[in-house]
């Protein structure tokens, strides 16, 4: 019997999950602060009920809308608003962009200096020295799992990169997950976010840093996503499917925060920084090729590698067939990508001439370190070519 590897597990201090859970937000937030910066997505009107519930419980609010994935300028501006209004609580309400902005602001409110001091690659990558301001994370999409992760992803367009502010202090004080909030997501958002969640369940499961706790999370999340993502895409009002996907996304965030990711996210980080393409759609388009490449290389180089058994288990969970092969799991994903009409990389302006530069950046990404097999420059470039 193999020894259990040493591991750490950390997540949000408190998680509330269930249909109608938003109704509890006023009382729960009032325990944490009285002056909240509420960071929303582009559709600020979706937060009206949230604002009303906060007001009923005496929480004053200042609202900031984030039009897209946060940039360094977005974080500077949001931090200035929070300080001007003396906010002692930050609430993120929306998709990954709103939640990442809220997490960055919460961390910076209590730590001296500009965001660059704490950013990887483009900054000094210093650790946060003090706990973040109280943070409530309320996702309205089912995909990123940001409500239970310990990093905030920030784009730096002038350098063409996406980087992270990373600290256990960025874990929210409260993750409030209400599946009913995802019902209004259009089919394309549902598809891209759902396949992002699937990626975040598959990559930690085959990661070099996988552990028994994250294994259980991944198995449960994969089972639910496989049966419910197509249903949620076809019928956004299917509350059972929405509930499954909200839970799958939550589990994926817990898994990735504690077991790492892999080549899909290494590639998506490079592409997102260079071309501004949406993260979920990038992961969806890249996932089948990365799975196929990992399986082939593992079989050629290390046929007894435990990740091959994991890929067979993934195939069984996705297809529902106990005799499914590793490749059939990748095929199931490829079929969903086609069924959901996920755009190719070329749609976002990626051209063959850029593939070498993308591959170089992807190989340097931190996510690549947990991939179950080392990928050569040629292998990474071939994955990109297949996704064009």
SSE topology sketch:
Layout: E1 15-17, H1 25-30, E2 35-40, H2 48-56, E3 60-65, H3 72-84, E4 89-94, H4 96-109, E5 135-139, E6 151-156, E7 161-166, E8 174-177, H5 187-206, H6 212-234, H7 239-259, H8 263-275, H9 279-301, H10 306-319, H11 326-339, H12 355-364, H13 377-387
Parallel strand pairs: 1-8, 2-3, 2-4, 4-5, 5-8
Antiparallel strand pairs: 6-7
Helix pairs in contact: 3-4, 5-6, 5-7, 5-9, 6-7, 6-10, 8-9, 8-12, 9-11, 9-13, 10-11, 12-13
Please tag this protein with its features:
388 residues; alpha/beta; Rossmann fold; Dehydroquinate synthase-like, alpha domain; 2 domains; six-stranded parallel sheet; two-stranded antiparallel ribbon; 13 helices; 8 strands; 11% strand
Would you kindly provide a brief summary of this structure?
The chain is 49% helix and 11% strand.
Structure explained in plain terms:
By secondary structure, the chain is α/β, with parallel strands linked by helices. It has two domains: 15-182, Rossmann fold, CATH 3.40.50; 187-387, Up-down Bundle (Dehydroquinate synthase-like, alpha domain). Helix content is 49%, strand content 11%. The chain has 13 helices and eight strands. It has helices at 25-30, 48-56, 72-84, 96-109, 187-206, 212-234, 239-259, 263-275, 279-301, 306-319, 326-339, 355-364, 377-387; strands spanning 15-17, 35-40, 60-65, 89-94, 135-139, 151-156, 161-166, 174-177. A hairpin with a 4-residue loop joins β6 and β7. α10 crosses α11. It is globular and about 60 Å long.
């Amino acid at each position: 019997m193999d020894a259990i590897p040493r591991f750490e597990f950390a997540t949000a201090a408190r998680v509330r999950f269930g249909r109608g859970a938003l109704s509890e937000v006023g009382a729960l937030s009032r325990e944490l602060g009285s002056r909240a910066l509420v960071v929303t997505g582009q559709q600020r009107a979706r937060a009206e009920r949230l604002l009303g519930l906060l007001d009923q419980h005496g929480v004053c609010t200042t609202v900031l809308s984030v039009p897209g994935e946060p940039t360094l300028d977005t974080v500077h501006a949001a931090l200035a608003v929070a300080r001007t209004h003396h906010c002692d609580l930050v609430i993120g309400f929306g998709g990954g962009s709103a939640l990442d902005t809220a997490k960055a602001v919460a961390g910076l409110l209590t730590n001296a200096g500009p965001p660059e001091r704490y950013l990887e690659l483009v900054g000094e990558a210093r650790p946060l020295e003090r706990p973040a301001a109280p943070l409530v994370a309320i996702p309205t999409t089912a995909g990123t799992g940001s409500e239970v992760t310990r990093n905030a992803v920030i784009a730096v367009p002038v350098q063409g990169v996406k980087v992270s502010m990373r600290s256990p202090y960025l874990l929210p004080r409260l993750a409030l997950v209400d599946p009913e909030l995802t019902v209004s997501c259009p089919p394309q958002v549902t598809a891209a976010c759902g396949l992002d969640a699937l990626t975040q369940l598959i990559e930690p499961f085959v990661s070099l840093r996988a552990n028994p706790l994250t294994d259980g999370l991944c198995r449960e999340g994969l089972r639910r996503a496989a049966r419910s993502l197509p249903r949620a895409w076809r019928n956004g009002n299917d509350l059972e499917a929405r509930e499954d996907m909200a839970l799958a996304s939550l589990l994926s965030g817990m898994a990735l925060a504690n077991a790492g990711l892999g080549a899909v996210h290494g590639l998506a980080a490079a592409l997102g920084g260079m071309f501004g393409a949406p993260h979920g759609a990038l992961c969806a388009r890249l996932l089948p090729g990365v799975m196929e490449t990992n399986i082939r290389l593992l079989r050629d180089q290390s046929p007894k590698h435990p990740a091959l058994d994991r890929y067979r288990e993934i195939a069984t969970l996705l297809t529902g067939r106990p005799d499914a092969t590793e490749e059939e799991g990748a095929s199931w994903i490829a079929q969903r990508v086609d069924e959901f009409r996920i755009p190719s990389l070329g749609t976002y302006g990626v051209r063959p001439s850029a593939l070498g530069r993308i591959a170089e950046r992807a190989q340097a990404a931190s996510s690549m370190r947990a991939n179950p097999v080392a990928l050569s420059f040629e292998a990474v470039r071939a994955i990109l070519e297949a996704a064009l």
